[in-house]
Structures are given as structure tokens and as C-alpha cells.
Design a protein that fits this description.
The complex is a heterodimer of chains A (316) and B (474). With 316 residues, chain A is mainly α. Chain A has 15 helices and no strands.
């Protein structure tokens, strides 16, 4: 396989995962803005979405007012914002186009149809009332992409590189969301009211990572608790967006690549070490190290891993 | 405007009775309700858009990817008609390859005075770097698209021999797939010769010209300028349907005289490159030094016989518009036979007598740039305004050797779906020819249709569409 093909498959998956993550963040914000029983002034919800996707600064440079229309323009439709849904879908499609020969017709049609339908939508038509439907459409299209990928592509190196892209992006997203509001997850913030800001942010974080319901199953009879939420999103391997789950997948895939090519590369050792670390760690150790330090350290190691992978397989 | 009564109608004769090859189709069209084709046309468009069968248009901000309009009524060619056409094409492509070998070696045809030497040797498309080099099997142009027009029951003319990197074959394939989805019943009532073997034939052709054909497996690649090229879809389509890598220049490198591609593991040696980039961009060390699309050192690896480039560099001389007028001589010179297919009579504006005639008759004729393509830089006298003609006259007088001229041909017309129903529209035909261990011609080809009433310009960049082309079997 060409190094460039590996790169395109990696980024095709990464950008799709990103589009879906941004849309889920916006769904949460939207929900907050619509049912404002959380008692917060309108802007808080949008700030959450902007901050978690790292585009607060860009937004403030361009817009004065924090409202649904402006946030949607910036995070969904903007061509300048490189992590907007539009940019992610376009980059995902360009990467898919570059490897038309390496992906199945089903997968290409899923990607291409998403892009065609997305560009048919006029930004003016997406008002606050219509936003939830639109975002859920984006979410479903991303599921369709991943379903088409898992169901149709050969389990060869192409598949492995696409999985790497998917889970590097996903773990980055989870770590960033946690880090944005890490202070609400410190153990001493546990004694709080149901209606408080922290409580709202916990619930928003869980929703943004599709974990609001599954938390209930992982911690039966438990109220929302900082310690549990942090453990759930970092260490519990059954949670498909936790850091531990992502690195289990990445380490397995690195092993698959080594088997497929018959040689072990430095990236394999990095992945194995990160997965082992997350498997052995206890939540109280992370608190001891400092939650923020742990998360920033994870984000940079995750980046280093992606870089090493590119080095090892010629797709820098 | 062209006189609407004098063109050849491929479906209906003078008495408006369907000609034999079209008999069943004409009946079928008659039986369908009024909006049937409109609906099918929309279905086809949805299929094309979903599959991403698009071409890029330069110079437009929005809609940079467009669909070529697809006409759902097939164009039909009978078996005897096709036999004659393919015999003519076969003769022509063999002669053109013999010509290329000759002018890059002993230049017998120039010594014999059959073509003015300057026309070849001073031509931009002639590559002195190719002199003395013999490609595998002496084949230069492996993939050719011969543009034909029909003017009467038995008269076809060759308009152009595209011997560089002819495009459109993916439309031939996808048009057929789409037609089979839209009208399965029509395929049951007609015996249509298949086109689906094209990628397999292309692969056989490329393998047969590998530097060392005895190797058990050949590494073949399609070289594309990238996703922003107007024909990118076709490049991906061909690589995919042959099961070979689609590469860009940056994916290849030359080491010790051999060409390799950068893979996720060890570099892999490449045997045959089906390139879809122009000569000038192939190798910045030999040709255009500014090229970002090519591969440094590629030409040396080629001349060392370590890789085959298809089509060979320097094949453009064979489809140069100034050489075109001499193709009948070329056929006679190398085959000793009369041409089966005729050239369109051509005036070479570099000759004073020809120029004088052209200037006197601008309102009647078509003038083309020698190196132009895509229907740009040409004058179609009968449809041009007085002012356009006056402006063109000035350009022509300033630089006559840059132009050739031809009579305005009454292109044949085929039934086409238009707003008002079904009406005749002018068409041309590009069959695709592969030359390697043998000459393989796919029955049919790409029919391009001028969708505007009376228009003779079939280029997709100028409002032309395409049709599926059916060659009926006996």
C-alpha cells in the first residue's frame, strides 16, 4: 500500500470522527439552550461547546454575540474554522477521494452523499429549532460511515490505518472535553446540588461522549459523582469513548499491523505501553498526579503516537 | 445555422421510417408515456452524483465538480457498420505507431518527402529526447481515442486521433452500467456488444509492454496529477477496475535507474506507468523544470529500458493538427493500402494558397488552432457573428501557421431527450483502442451529443452531453 494511501485512510476516519464529536457537543449545547431549567444564562451552553472543541478564540475574534446562529455559523458551516463540521466533512471526503481505489463503493457513496446533502443545506435555514434535527442527521451520517466501513472493507492494512485515525481522534476528543472542565471532576467537588453548574457540566460531558445512559449501567444506583465520572471516561474499558477503551483498540490494531507486515515498529511499543498504563492505573493515582497534568500528558503522548505511526509507515 | 434538412438522421430515413438498427428502439420510444424519459433522466443524474462521476471545471468558484449531462436514449450502430469502422481504426492506429517509430529513428517518410521535414522536426510535440529509443514491442501510442463523425449512410470521417491521453472511457463504462439499471427491458430486446471487458483489456495491454514481459507479475500504476484534475474520477476508476495503485508523482521516486513507489513498507519497483499527465510534466529533470507533478529521473529510467511509460513521451506528434492532414499519406506509406476511413479535407493555413481560400470563405468553414483542444480557440463560420469573424480574421492573418481549417461538416444526428420530447441532436463518436500485443477495440465508445438545437459543438466543456453507444451483434 502507498504511504499516501495509509495517510488518507487515517485522516478520512479522523475527520469523520471529528465531525461527529463536534455535532454531539453542539447537540448538548443546544439541549441546554432550549430547556434552560439548568438555570444558567444562555451563553454557558455555547461556551461549553466552543471550549471543548478548542475554537473559542477563533469565535471571539469573529463574533460579538454568543448565540445559536453565530455558534452554528462558526462550528457547523464555517470554511475558515478548520474544525467546523463543514471543514471536517470536506477534508474527510477529499481524503476518501484520494483513495477511491482503496475503499468500497458503499463506503464512498456514504461519504459522498453526506457531503452532497450537507452542501445543499443553507446555513440560514438552520435555526435553533431546527438545529437538533440537523445535528442528529450529522450524527447518523457519521454512524453510517463507520457502519459502512466496518461492514464492507477488507481487514487488511487499510482497515488498520482507518482504525488508528478513528481512535486517535476519539481519545483526543475525550481527553480535551475532560480537561476543559477538569476542576469540576476533582473529588472535593462532590458535595454539590443537583441544580448547580457542576452538575450541569457533568451531565453535559457525559452526553457529549454518549455516556449519560451507560453511566447508569456502569454505576448502578449511583448518583452522578466526580470520581465515578472521571473513572468512567478515563479507565473503564467497556465505555467505547474512554481513554482506556481507545488505547485497547489502538494497541490491538498496532499488533495487527505488526502481524500483517511481519515486523514490529516503535509505534507498537508506544501503543502497548499506553494501553498497559491505562489498564493498571487507579483513579486515586491519577488524582495524586493531578488530573489536569494527567490529561495534558495524555494529549501530548497521543499526538506523539500518531506522529510515530506516520514515521513508521511512511505517511508523515 | 446549419441547414436542418441536410444532416443525416441516424434513426429515421427521408420518409420518417425508422432505419433497421433503430426499429425496436423507435417503437419502444413511441410506447412510453410523455414524462417517462424525464423521470429516467433524473434517476440517472442521481446515480451519477452519488457515485461521484463528475468532472472538475476550472475557473468557477462554486460547483467545481459537475456532471456531464447524460442522455438516456442510446445511439445504435449496426454490426456491419462497426466492422468497417473497426477495420479502419485498426489500420489507422497501426500506421500511426509505425510513423512514430520511423520519425524517432530513420525518418524514412521525411526522406521520401511525403511530409515536409520541418513540420515534424520543428514541431513542439516532437521530442528529440526520444530519438533512437525503441519502446517495448515498438508501440508508442498504447491508448488511442479516435474521434469520428458521420455525415451520411456510408460516410464516416476521422476528425482527430487522440494519441496522448484520451479521456472519457469511464463515461463509456458508467453510461452502460446506468443504462442497464434504467432500461433492463431494452437490453433484453437488443443484442448489444459488451464494453465491460475494457479494464481487463487495458491491463493485458499494459502488461504486454512491460520491460521484461517474462516476469511472473508486473507492477502497474496509473499516474494522476491528483484529486483536483478534471479527469480525476476517471483515473481512480481505471486504477480501481484494473486493481492497480493510483499514484501521484510524489508517490514515485527513481533509484539507480529504476522507478519505485513509496509504500507503507519497502519501496516497490514499478514496471509500467499508465500516465495521465502531459509529457512536459513527466520529469522535471528532462522537461518542464517547474513540474511538481512528475518524477525526477523518470525519463532516464525509461530510456534505460527499466520502466514503460504509456503512452510514450512524444506521441503527441501523431495527433498534431498540422500532421493530421498527412495521415492518409502515412497510412499508404507504412501499410501500402488505401485508407479505409477518410480524413476531413483540411486546409493548412501555413500554405499561402490554402490561407487565401480560408480567408475568402470564413463564413462557411471551421478554423481550429493547431495545438488547441476542447473546442476552444476555434471559429465555426456558419454560426459565428460578423464581428466574431472579423476578429478571427485578424488573429488568423497575424499567425496563419497556428491554424488549420475544415469544411463545416453536417454531423449526423441521433434521437435525444430534450425539453419538448425527443428530437435529433448532432453527435460524434470516440471509440477506444488499445495497442500492445494486439490491437483491441472496444465495440462502441463514447458518443458525445450537442444538446443545443443546431449546435455542432459536442465538447462537455461547452454544453455537450454523452450517450451510451450500442454496437449490435449479428
Amino acid at each position: 500500500m502507498l504511504g499516501r494511501t495509509a495517510s488518507s485512510l487515517f485522516w478520512m476516519s479522523r475527520y469523520h470522527e471529528r465531525a461527529q464529536n463536534v455535532s454531539r457537543l453542539l447537540e448538548v449545547a443546544c439541549r441546554g439552550a432550549i430547556i434552560s431549567h439548568s438555570g444558567q444564562e444562555d451563553g454557558t451552553h455555547w461556551t461549553f461547546a466552543l471550549a471543548c472543541s478548542d475554537c473559542e478564540t477563533g469565535f471571539k475574534q469573529k463574533y460579538e454575540e454568543l448565540n445559536a446562529r453565530n455558534v452554528a455559523a462558526h462550528m457547523i458551516f464555517s470554511k475558515e474554522n478548520t474544525s467546523s463540521i463543514r471543514s471536517s466533512l470536506e477534508l474527510a471526503r477529499n481524503n476518501a477521494r484520494a483513495v477511491r481505489t482503496g475503499i468500497t463503493a458503499e463506503l464512498w457513496e456514504a461519504i459522498n452523499t453526506t457531503w452532497i446533502e450537507f452542501t445543499d443545506v443553507s446555513p440560514q435555514s438552520v435555526t435553533l429549532e431546527k438545529l437538533p434535527d440537523f445535528l442528529s442527521w450529522v450524527n447518523q451520517r457519521a454512524h453510517l460511515f463507520r457502519g459502512a466501513l466496518l461492514n464492507t472493507i477488507l481487514r487488511d492494512d487499510g482497515y488498520f490505518f482507518s482504525q488508528m485515525g478513528n481512535f486517535v481522534e476519539r481519545s483526543d476528543n475525550t481527553a480535551r472535553i475532560l480537561d476543559t472542565y477538569y476542576w469540576t471532576l476533582l473529588p472535593d467537588s462532590d458535595i454539590i446540588d443537583d441544580g448547580s453548574l457542576e452538575h450541569y457540566q457533568w451531565s453535559a460531558m457525559l452526553r457529549a461522549l454518549s455516556g449519560r445512559r451507560s453511566y447508569r449501567f456502569a454505576y448502578p444506583n449511583a448518583r452522578l459523582k466526580a470520581f465515578n465520572i472521571a473513572e468512567f471516561l478515563i479507565l473503564r474499558t467497556e465505555m467505547p469513548r474512554s481513554l482506556a477503551h481507545c488505547y485497547d483498540w489502538i494497541a490491538d490494531t498496532a499488533e495487527d499491523l505488526a502481524q500483517f507486515y511481519g515486523s514490529r515498529e516503535p509505534s507498537l511499543d508506544m501503543a502497548a505501553e499506553m494501553a498497559r498504563d491505562l489498564a493498571e492505573k487507579q483513579m486515586h493515582e491519577i488524582y495524586q498526579q493531578g488530573l489536569h497534568d494527567f490529561l495534558s500528558d495524555f494529549i501530548s503522548k497521543n499526538n506523539l503516537f500518531a506522529h510515530q505511526l506516520g514515521e513508521d509507515y511512511n505517511f508523515a | 445555422m446549419s441547414d436542418e434538412r441536410t444532416f443525416f438522421n441516424e434513426m429515421l430515413d427521408e420518409a420518417n421510417t425508422p432505419r433497421q438498427p433503430y426499429a425496436r428502439l423507435a417503437k419502444w420510444l413511441e410506447d412510453k408515456p410523455a414524462n417517462f424519459l424525464t423521470k429516467k433522466g433524473r434517476d440517472a443524474e442521481t446515480i451519477f452524483r452519488r457515485l461521484g462521476i463528475t468532472f472538475a471545471v476550472y475557473g468557477t468558484e462554486e460547483a467545481t465538480e459537475r456532471l456531464i449531462p447524460f442522455d438516456p436514449i442510446p445511439r445504435i450502430i449496426s454490426a456491419p457498420e462497426w466492422r468497417r469502422l473497426s477495420a479502419g481504426i485498426d489500420q489507422r492506429v497501426r500506421a500511426l505507431n509505425a510513423f512514430l517509430h520511423d520519425i524517432y529513428h530513420r525518418q524514412e517518410i521525411l526522406r521520401a518527402g511525403r511530409i515536409p521535414a520541418d513540420l515534424v522536426l520543428q514541431n513542439e510535440a516532437f521530442l528529440p529526447e526520444m530519438a533512437g529509443f525503441t519502446p517495448a514491442r515498438k508501440v508508442y501510442a498504447h491508448i488511442i481515442g479516435t474521434d469520428l463523425v458521420r455525415v451520411s449512410e456510408n460516410e464516416f470521417y476521422v476528425l482527430e486521433d487522440n494519441t496522448r491521453t484520451p479521456s472519457g472511457v469511464s463515461y463509456m463504462m458508467e453510461n452502460r452500467e446506468t443504462m442497464m439499471r434504467l432500461f433492463p427491458d431494452l437490453f433484453q430486446s437488443h443484442r448489444v456488444a459488451a464494453v465491460e471487458q475494457y479494464p481487463e483489456n487495458l491491463l493485458q495491454t499494459l502488461e504486454s509492454v512491460a520491460p521484461d514481459p517474462s516476469k511472473s507479475s508486473q507492477t502497474i500504476v496509473v499516474l494522476t496529477p491528483g484529486i483536483y484534475n478534471s479527469a480525476y474520477f476517471e483515473h481512480a476508476f481505471l486504477a480501481d477496475s484494473m486493481g492497480v495503485e493510483l499514484v501521484e508523482g510524489r508517490d514515485l521516486f527513481v533509484d539507480a535507474g529504476h522507478v519505485f513507489m513509496r509504500t507503507t513498507r519497502e519501496p516497490k519497483q514499478v514496471d509500467v506507468i499508465y500516465r495521465r499527465i502531459d509529457d512536459a510534466f513527466l520529469d522535471p529533470l528532462t522537461f518542464n523544470p517547474g513540474s511538481m507533478l512528475g518524477v525526477p529521473g523518470l525519463f532516464d529510467a525509461y530510456r534505460a529500458g527499466n520502466v514503460t511509460i504509456c503512452n510514450a513521451p512524444g506521441t503527441g506528434i501523431a495527433d498534431d493538427k498540422a500532421i493530421y492532414a498527412y495521415v492518409p499519406d502515412i497510412i499508404e506509406f507504412y501499410t501500402g493500402q488505401k485508407p479505409i476511413l477518410n480524413n476531413v479535407p483540411t486546409w493548412n493555413c501555413s500554405r499561402p494558397d490554402d490561407l487565401a481560400y480560408v480567408l475568402d470563405n470564413l463564413e462557411e468553414i471551421v478554423v481550429k488552432e493547431v495545438h488547441g483542444s476542447g473546442g476552444y480557440g476555434m471559429l465555426i463560420g456558419p454560426t459565428a457573428s460578423k464581428r466574431e469573424i472579423a476578429e478571427f480574421r485578424k488573429v488568423l492573418e497575424t499567425n496563419p501557421s497556428n491554424y488549420i481549417a475544415q469544411p463545416t461538416l453536417a454531423l449526423s444526428a441521433c434521437p435525444t431527450h430534450v425539453a419538448s420530447g425527443v428530437a435529433p441532436r448532432h453527435v460524434d463518436l470516440r471509440p477506444y483502442v488499445l495497442i500492445g500485443d494486439q490491437v483491441r477495440i472496444t465495440p462502441g465508445g463514447l458518443t458525445r451529443v450537442a444538446l443545443k438545437k443546431g449546435s455542432l459543438v459536442v465538447n462537455s466543456s461547452q454544453g455537450g452531453g454523452t450517450k451510451d453507444t450500442w454496437v449490435l451483434e449479428d
